[in-house]
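User: Hey, my collaborator sent me this sequence without any context and asked if I could get a structure. I don't really work with proteins. Can you help?
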Amino acid sequence: MTLADWDNSVRPHLHYIEAGAAMAARHARELQIRPNFESRAEHELAELRSVLSSALAFVISAQEHIKSKPVEGA
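Assistant: No problem. I've predicted the 3D structure and written it out in structure-token form, which is a compact way to encode the shape of the chain:
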């Protein structure tokens, strides 16, 4: 995938995820009480946390692989 393809097809989704996460955090702070059952929102946040945790593990692994490569010209 070229950088241009990445910018067109992937980057917008990452921005939506970022905006959605910020919105969820903002609304969660505004709650005065919560129900005595797990709401759909709580369930979805738990699922999202799992997906993002997995994605973060891949990012960390990729960063470690990049850092382990020799530096050009060194």
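In plain terms: The mean pLDDT is 91. You can pass these tokens on to your collaborator as they are.
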